[in-house]
Amino acid sequence: MMTNPASNNLDEQNQDAYDDLIVSIEAGVGRLNLLIAVCDYENYRQEIISRYQAELQPDIRCYHVTLARNEPSLKAAIQQLVESEEYLQQHQPAVITVTGVEQLYFLRLGESQSEQEKFFGYLQWTREALREFPFAIVLWVTNQVLVNLIKKAPDFWSWRNGVFHFICKPKNIVHVQDFEQIRNILENGELSNLDDSKYSGLPIADLERLVEQLEKQDNHQDPKLLISLYSQLGNIYNRRLDKGEALDYQQEENLAIKYYSQAINLQTELGLEIDLATSLNNLANLYFSQGRYDQAEPLYLQALELCKRLLGDNHPDVASSLSNLAYLYDSQGRYDQAEPLFLQALELRKRLLGDNHPSVATSLNNLAYLYESQGRYDQAETLYLQALELSKRLLGDNHPSVATSLNNLANLYESQGRYDQAEPLLLRALELFKRLLGDNHPSVATSLNNLANLYDSQGRYDEAEPLYFQALELSKRLLGENHPSVATSLNNLANLYDSQGRYDQAETLFLEALELRKHLLGDNHFHVATSLNNLAGLYESQGRYDQGEPLYLQALEICQQVLGDDHPTTVTVRKNLAHLLANLSDSPQSENFDNNHI
Predict the structure, then answer these.
(1) What is the C-alpha to C-alpha distance for residues 196 and 184, in angstroms, rounded to an integer?
(2) Contacts of 555 (CB under 8 A, 6+ apart)
(3) What's the pLDDT tens digit per position in 18-45?
(4) CA gap 291, 436 in Å, rounded
């Protein structure tokens, strides 16, 4: 997998393909030289094109044409280019790059031919006509187009001088098996010639175009077909987010929200309550991941009520709904509401699915996270270890769920000062997330943050700072400027600066994190209390006691209300406040005090 499409450093497999492409272009100078390059990722495709054009010039002049969608003729596109360029008319050394095939629709969408079928038709009868162009022609296609090109333009295919595959993880292809239930809306068996091979599938753009077409049709069109498409597209984008395949994380997250919302509207209208419960849960999960907790909660509650009423209390979907709602409450510091739901979900999953099931490992992890948040470390560690062992046994060592378990256990060790045990787990989790999900995924940002926290706690500031910066930049780029994870990164980086005595930089970031958390989470959230405590500690370090005291008081009030008097965070804030008050009265206990960040 190529981890950084913007980089000029190709992995070994793609470097070999690139080198072969360069050699083939240079070897075919002065004659017709048909070369087919295959890549599903637009950014990567453009990078490779720019790279070989820069490398070949000035000895071989480079040109680029894009096929017209309404008339996707390779011969016509090249003919038009040659007629406009005197250099090409003199048959000088040149390479012509052809793109646009990746934009052609596969489905007919009510027409007698799809755009791809028109392209293949032109291509099949183009070979002889191309003889008049003594140039290297690099035709860029996707894997889905390649499968059909071989079948539908065999004469052209037989003239190829090379096929060059550039492999990268993100794809805009949806495998056909995901759409078995909507085959009946596609006319003339358009999917019948697609098998389940590695590269066969349907471009997402076709499905979105199909949705647009169905939306414009009269109301007598069966709306269940449209609901199916909405749900499938929501699922597709959701899976791409989970697997690190999204080309633009925020854009595809918003598309998933859009399609789930449209499905919910029609499911509600038609009374399709079972499907509605699933869509509500899916949409709520996305709102939750965006930090939109107030919008997520009513959807989780509605989904839970529907599942219980329609499926009974003893059903795996009920356990999932309980778990989702509990995790929301846990993230908001509403521990008394979260714990009984987590326990119900765990008991239900064990009884219905057995002790050895991935969902049981998820429940163990969730409950352990709750206990850790409450300072119940011994209980949390036992559950984290159980979850890790179960995930490894069921899913293997190389799975995102295993990385999550490693990360959570390491955080627990770090909070207890068990740094030597935490570091190897955090490094392993980061390596797994990067390898399995790619460098551009929120889980990688979280993992970077956690490793930086560990180094910060050990005073390894030079190692922590670049990791905090990477996590902050990645969170902003993937999740947007207004997200709880961004506030966490700002807060952590500010803590680092505070520890180093870089107070002006720390204050700016603490204030930014506090404002963002209030905006996203409300005034009475324990993360807001964290920001207030840390900012107060900064002021105290500078002797600005009059500014620090009211912030400690606000933080303490929130912690007592949300977490209770005995929670470790509440104890820390109370200790910090007492120290500041002692400073105000010139108490000797103020010496050698290190303010506690939380």
Answers:
(1) 18
(2) 529, 530, 532, 533, 536, 573
(3) 999 999 999 988 899 999 999 988 888 9
(4) 24
Res. 5 pLDDT band, cuts 50 70 90: very low
Rounded distance between C-alpha atoms, residue 304 and residue 163, angstroms: 52
Q: How is the chain split among helix, strand and coil, in percent rounded to 5?
A: 70, 5, 25
- Closest by CA to 422, choosing from 408, 410, 412, is 410
Which conformational region is residue 187 in: left (phi greater than 0), alpha (psi within -120 to 50 degrees), or beta? beta
pLDDT of amino acid 529:
95
CA trace torsion 126, 129, 135, 140 (10° rounding)? -10
Q: Which residue has the tokens 């204030």?
A: 511
Residue 586's region, left for phi above 0, alpha for psi from -120 to 50, else beta, is left
Task: Write the DSSP string, 248-286.
Answer: SHHHHHHHHHHHHHHHHHHHHHHT-HHHHHHHHHHHHHH
Strand-pairing partners, residue 202, are: 174
pLDDT in tens, 250-309: 999 999 999 999 999 999 999 999 999 999 999 999 999 988 889 999 999 999 999 999
Reduce the secondary structure of 123-164 to three states and give it as a string.
Answer: HHCCCHHHHHCCCEEEEEECHHHHHHHHHHCHHHHCCCCEEE
- From the DSSP assignment, how many helices (H) and strands (E) are in the chain? 25, 7
Per cent of the chain over pLDDT 70 is: 90
Query: Closest Cα to residue 117, out of 109, 161, 41?
Result: 109
Burial of 325-347, coded b for 16+ CB within 10 Å and e otherwise, reads bbbbbbbbbbbeebbebbebbbe
Closest CA to 329 of 278, 294, 372, 379: 294
Tokens of 353: 């699915």
Is the pTM higher than 0.70? The answer reads: yes
What is the rounded average pLDDT of the residues 524-536? 93
Positive or negative: CA dihedral 73, 76, 80, 86: positive
What is the CB neighbour count within 10 angstroms for residue 524? 15
Residues whose CB is less than 8 angstroms from the CB of residue 62 and which lie 6 or more positions away in sequence, other chains included: 52, 53, 56, 94, 95, 97
Nearest to 421 by CA among 470, 385, 368, 464: 385
Whether 549 and 356 have beta carbons less than 8 Å apart is answered as: no
Closest CA to 449 of 428, 432, 433, 426: 426
Q: Which of 553, 585, 593, 587 is nearest to 570 (CA)?
A: 553
φ, ψ for residue 202 (rounded to 5)?
-120, 125
d(CA 400, CA 430): 10
CB–CB of 118/124 below 8 Å?
no
> Between the CA of residue 121 and those of 127, 367, 463, 556, what are the distances in Å?
12, 59, 59, 73
Task: Please state, as a whole number, how many other Cβ atoms lie within 10 Å of the Cβ of residue 543.
Answer: 10
